Structure prediction request, 580 residues.
Amino acid sequence: MNRNVVVRTVDLTKVYRTFWGKMYVRALNKVNLEIYEGEVFALLGPNGSGKTTTMKLLLGIMFPTNGQVEVFGKSPRNVEIKKDVGFMPEESYLYRFLNADETLRFYGNLMGLDKKTRNKKIDEVLEVVGLTEARKRRTKEYSKGMARRIGMAQVLLKDPKLVVLDEPTIGLDPRGAREIKDVILELKERGKTVVLSSHLLADMQDICDRIAILHRGSLIKTDRVENLLTIVDTWEIIAKNLTEGTRQKVGEVIQDGGGELEKIGHPRESLESLFLKTIKEEEVEK
Amino acid sequence: MIAFLEPLKTHWPQIQIGLGAVCLALFAAGASSRRVKAIAVNTIREELRKKILYFLVLFGIIFMAASGAISKVQPGREGEAVAQMGLFAVSLFGMLVAVFAATTALFSEIRSRTIFLLFSHPVWSFHIILGKFLGVVGIVFVSVALMGTGLVVYFALTPWWPLTGKIALGVSLIFFQLVMLTAMCVLGSTFLSRITNILMSLILFFVGSGHAFFKDITEMMKVVVMKYYILAFLFVLPNFQKFAVSGKALSGELSLDATYVLSAVGDALFRAAVMVALAILFFRVKEVGTERWE
Prediction:
C-alpha cells in the first residue's frame, strides 16, 4: 500500500465551552492519527466518543482547542484542499425545498463545474445511486435511504481524493446499507481514501482496512482490522461434505496433537446475507 | 469643526456618490463569482418557495389599496396622502420581507446543518455571506418591485398621475433603504440569535427612521459625554429617514435633486458594503456545529 499520509492529527484536542468560557465537555483528548492514501479507515466508538467532532475538525468546520490537524499536508481550513475532500454527514442535511437535480446542480456550481460537465456528471451519479426516477421530487419527500443516497451522490459528483462519511449506514435497511458499503468498496478500488465513522461495528468489519476505537474523546486502539479481530491462538477449518466418521477423526487428530477441540458444527450465514438473498430471490420470482 | 475637514464636509455628497460607485463595483465583482451566484440563487429559490413571502407582498398591496380611503380624510391633498400611505406600505412590508428573509438566510443554513456541506466545498466565508446578502437583496428587489409597480400603475391611472415620477423615485429609495437593512440583519446573524437579531434590527430601523428626531433630542442633552456618545451612535447608525420621500417632497415644497438622491444611494451602498465586510470577518472566525459533540 502507498504510505502517503492524507490525514494527520497531532495531540488533537477539542473542548466545548459555555458562552462564559467554562468548559462543559472535552470532546477529544490528544488524539494522534495517521490515515494513508487509498485506505478505508473507520472511527469507531459509542455515542459521544468524539467521532463526529473528529470529522468536523478534519473538514475545517470547527477549530481545534489544542493540537494540529492536517489534510493533504495543509490546514483543513484551506479552501484549496476542499476540492479534494467529499463529505457525507450523519444525516443527509439537504435543502428541503430543492429536488435531487437542483441539489446536485447547486453543489456542482459550488465546485465550479461548467454546465455541460456538471449535467453529464449529475446524470451519471444519479444512475449510480439509483435516483434517476426520483430526480424531480423534492428532497423533503425522500425516505431516509433516498436522502442518504443523494448525500452520497453529491460526494460522487465531486469525485474527491478523500471521502469523509459520518455514520454512512445508520438508519438504512440491510439492502441500503449493502449498497452504500459497495460504493465505499468501489471508491477504495478507485484509489480513494475513505474515512468513516460508525457505531454499527458489523457494518464496518467487512469494508475497512484499519480502525480506530475512540472512547470519551480518547483514542483507545488503532490497527488493521485483521490484526484486531484475529484470535491468534484459535484455528478455523472450513470443509464441505464431511461424514460423521471424518468429523470424529478430525477431533481425534486435534486432541492427539495436544489441541483442544472447542466446536465442530455447521457454520451460520449472517442475517444480512440471508436477508439480501431472500429479497433478491423474491424479486427474481416476480 | 477642524479646518481640514471643511472641504470634506463641503464635498460630502460627491464623496458619498464616489464611495457608492466603488461599492457597487465591488458587489458586482463579487456577484460575478460562480460560487456567490450559486448561493445567491439558492437563497432566492428558498425564499420564493416559502408562502410567507407572498402573504407579505399581498398584504402590502391590500394595504396600499386600502390607503385610497385616506383621500376622503384630507380633502385637497388626497393624492399626496394616498402616495405617502402607499410608500409607507411599500416600506413597511418591504422591511418585514427584508428582516424575515435576511435573519433567516444564514440561520436556516446553520439550523438545518446544510452549512456543513457548504463548508466541505471550496467556498470562502465571503462566498457564503455575499451570496446570502445578494440573494436576500434579490428577494427584497422582487417584493419592492411588485408593490412599487402596483403603486405606480395605480397612480398613473388616477387624476394624481403627476405624482407618478416621485412615487417611482420614492420606491427606488425604499429599495436602497432596505439594502442597508438587509446588510444589517446579515451582520447580526453572524453573532446574534435569530430572535435577538430580529428585535435589534427592528429597534435600529425604528431609531434610524426617526434619525432627525433622535438627533434633535440628543442635541438638547446637558451631559456632554453622553451627548457625544449618542451622536456618535447616530452617525454610525444608518439614517433610514433619508430614504423616505416626505409629504413636502411630494408636494414640491422640498426638491429631491439628483445629488441628494445619488448621495443617499451612495451612502446606502457604502454602509451595506461595510456591514457585509464585517459580517464576512465575524463569520470567518465563527465556529458552527458546536451544538453536538458525539
